[in-house]
Amino acid sequence: MKIKLFPLGKTVALLVVFFSSTIQSNAHNDGVKMGYLAELKSKYFLLDQNGKVLKELNCIYAAPFSEGLALIRKPSAPNSMGAMLNFPTGDENSVFIDVNGNEIKSPEFKRANPFSDGVTWVEAGLFNHFLMDKTGKQIAKVNDDWLVDDFSEGMAPVWLQKEEHRGQLIDPALLSNRWGFIDKTGKLVIPFDLTYANGFHQGAAAVRDKKGRWYLIDKTGKQLGEKYDDVFNISDGMAKFQVGTKYGYLDNQGTVVIKPDFADARDFGEGLAAVKIENKVGFIDKTGKQQIAPQFQDALKFSEGLCPVQIAEKKMGIYRPHGKTSYSRDFRRSSPILRRTSTRASRR
């Protein structure tokens, strides 16, 4: 059996292909063999890079690969509460598989993050939370009231769960505004003095204080630069920031590099960033100099020399600066390339 990996722009009715990375980010897959998953009529398959089915997976859910491993949820009999309410209660058994479909040896668990920075946070029971490495080894216990986001550069945002919501499958970001950071030993290294926190990138993290102001911090929690209405994650050495309705860019020390003169802006990638100039989107370099004339309705960021762009309401495609641009009327629906990926805690 072979499932076709459709080229970009083709409409896929029943097949959704999950790649271990998209054009937006290959950071978690450097030196790691790529894995491919597909869903067809509520069944999940492991594929090779040519779309050939390697095996059917015995699972009711499969997440995209991250760092060579993918979380799958194996079928199990629903408990009485789940059967009565006709929805999953989080009691399903979950494991991680490698790109060959083999389970890594680890305790079965209710939920876990994708692997990042070689580590995942696992909830194996109501009072059993821990950090696990890619061999399935438990490396640190985690306080049961802490919910941990993805690791990057050795640290992860963590936020407090209200006691009355402990063990519930609910977005804790709606329930608590006390955020800090832990390291890979499970130790709290930046206290719960923040009201929101994103992960570290190139030594800096975007966080929010109790007055709703955003700024960058270093790994000791020290403020870098000034506070603004909004600050986004570091990407390609630059962080987008907002003052009123205008956007500019900071470096990873919080220094203003490009003044907030743009009505809209995207992250930097490969030295370029999409910005809105007089209702059209073009690209600037890290000095703020225009490199690609405004001509698009919207665009994301460059990766591997390509950039997803929108020309008209239903005309989208991949922009190649030195070649022909490919367009499709159904691009956004049929391809994962334009989906803006985010983790459970990180909004950007």
Can you give keywords for this protein?
44% strand, disordered C terminus, 3% helix, 31 strands, mainly beta, flat, four-stranded antiparallel β-sheet, Thrombin, subunit H, disordered N terminus, 348 residues
Fold and architecture overview:
- This protein is mainly beta.
- The protein has two helices and 31 strands.
- It has four domains: 1-81, no CATH class; 105-194, no CATH class; 198-262, Thrombin, subunit H (Beta Barrel), CATH 2.40.10; 263-343, Thrombin, subunit H (Beta Barrel).
- 3% of the residues lie in helices and 44% in strands.
- The two termini are 38 Å apart.
What's the topology here?
Blueprint: E1 15-19, E2 36-40, E3 43-47, E4 53-57, E5 61-62, E6 70-74, H1 80-85, E7 93-97, E8 111-112, E9 119-125, E10 128-133, E11 138-141, E12 146-148, E13 155-160, E14 179-183, E15 188-194, E16 196-197, E17 205-208, E18 214-217, E19 223-228, E20 230-235, E21 238-243, E22 246-251, E23 256-262, E24 265-269, E25 272-277, E26 280-284, E27 290-296, E28 298-299, E29 307-312, E30 315-319, E31 326-328, H2 331-334
Antiparallel strand pairs: 1-2, 2-3, 3-4, 5-6, 6-7, 8-9, 9-10, 10-11, 12-13, 13-14, 14-15, 16-17, 17-18, 18-19, 20-21, 21-22, 22-23, 24-25, 25-26, 26-27, 28-29, 29-30, 30-31
